Every structure is written in structure tokens, then in C-alpha cells.
Fold this sequence. Notes:
The protein has 311 residues and is of the alpha/beta class. The chain contains ten helices and 14 strands. It has helices spanning 10-23, 41-54, 73-77, 109-113, 157-167, 175-178, 181-194, 210-223, 278-286, 293-300; strands at residues 2-5, 33-39, 60-67, 80-87, 95-102, 123-126, 146-149, 172-174, 200-205, 227-231, 237-244, 247-252, 258-262, 269-272. Helix 2 (41-54) crosses helix 9 and helix 8 packs across helix 10 (293-300). This is Glucose-6-phosphate dehydrogenase assembly protein OpcA. It comes from Streptomyces muensis. Residues 170-299 form the Glucose-6-phosphate dehydrogenase assembly protein OpcA C-terminal domain.
Amino acid sequence: MKIDLTDTTASKINKALVQGRRAIGTPAVGMVLTMVIVTDEENAYDSIKAAEEASHEHPARTLVVIKRHARTPRDRTRSHLDAEVRVGADAGTGETVVLRMYGEVSEHADSVVLPLLLPDAPVVVWWPVEAPDNPAKDPLGALAQRRITDLYTTENPLVELEARARSYAPGDTDLAWTRLTPWRSMLAAALDQARVPIVSATVEAEADNPAAELLARWLEARLHVTAERVVTAGPVVTGVRLGTENGEIVIDRPEGPLATLSLPDQPSRTLALKVRTTSELIAEELRRLDADEMYAIALRGEATKENPSDV
């Protein structure tokens, strides 16, 4: 069910949500968090679709903030808010409110979003594109326990990565880091099996890949070695090599969803290591809303003396 509201207010949107729930016969609110998506019109559809798919695992109220550019001089002076309320089958397992902001109201999006947050529920803010320089100090980011960005959507990801390292605050995370979870899990399992000191590390990936840089920094911090960066044709991360006195531990994925794991004095084995969808990445991030300490370590390249198998 969809309800369109023109030149509306947060109060009217809340009433429309109640009206929509009653109309579909589910007056109770069974959602566990509020997700705020800050995007543009071009990327709104894909972002909403990913959030709705993730809501099957994490029922949420999704607030989509779209700041519209003025097309005429009148638009620049006229401040108003349009909304589209979606409930039931049109909103996954939660609720979706698309907020289109015009004029001055777009500069105060937090004042619109605040009355629409679920009471006593965590808030997650996701910028699919064009994240602020300091997400924690952004007016919308300040409302959230978790702030999700994506270095893959930036023009200069490695430059932006350094900026994220400088502005990091507990609760920040990035989908470039989330994409590495299968790699980190596989490497941790390999280290548990090998039980030998690591003397070198190499990360192979396409040029300027932010996930590869985070992976290299994570290996350096966890294993206390210098990780060599090797540029390949891609796509994304294609291999990791860990040198030991007995030979190399190698995870190789030149292309496709399968990788080859090789350990010294053991036969090679084939493992699943596919590139995951955005909805899968978002669903993973919503499973834990506390500070991601491993991301902070990888982002800043901070050394740690903890067990390397602890991912």
C-alpha cells in the first residue's frame, strides 16, 4: 500500500503510517530499528530495494531522505516536503517513507527525520553515495548508533579512506570493509590450521581498491608484518598470500564465485567466495550495532597483540 503526501509535515506522515497499518490489518509495530538512507533520486531505487531485502532479516522503518535541487527561482525560496508512505507488500517486512525535501527544509533534514524515528529503537544511517566528510558530526549521523558509508562509490577511494581514518568515531563502518568478511573468516580459519608464524603478506587486487587496502592494513596490524600490495586485473580482491617458513598460505580467486585455498603440505581445496549483493552487506551490518573495533584497527592500521585468528 502506498500513500502520497504533498507539501506535508512529520505529523501527517506519522498519521499516514498508522492509517496504512490499520488498512492492511497490522496495527502493531514489530520493527526493531530505524534505517535512514540519505541518497539522491538517481540511486534511491536501488538503495530502497536493498533495504527492503535486508528488512526480511531485520524488520525496520526505513526513512529515505532525498534532497531535491531547485529547478526554478520559485523553488529556491519555497520550502516544502513531499512524502511517499509504503506499508505491507510495498515495503518488505517493515515500513518505508520516502522524503523529498525542497528548499530550506533540505538543510534541516534532521528536524524532519527526528519525529519519525521509532521510539526506543536503534538508528542506522546509510549513505549509499556522497557521504559527509565526518559522518559522526553530520546532523543525521549524530542521531545514529551506526553510520554506514561505501568507499566504492567515491571518485578517489584511497584518498577518501585517509579522510575516514582521520574522522573515525565509534559506530562508523564502511561496506568496503563488510565485503571482506568472507576473506577474513577464511584467512582466520587457515591460520588456525597452519599454526606457524607469518613472515610476509601480499594482497592482490585491482588498482585503487579500498577493500584491498583495508585488508592489507588489517593483516599488517594483526600479523605484525608489512603487507605488499600487488595490482592485478581484478575484479576486486583476487588473492592473498601469507608467507611462512614452511611455504605459502594462499587464497586465490581470479574470477567467479570460487576460490582456491592452499596450505603448506596440504592438498588445495575449492571454497565458495562470491561477491555479495548490497542487501546482503546491509543485512550483515544490521546484525551488530556496537562499535566495529576491527574496522577501526584496519582503517587506522593500528597494531594489536591479540590472537590473529580473532576476526
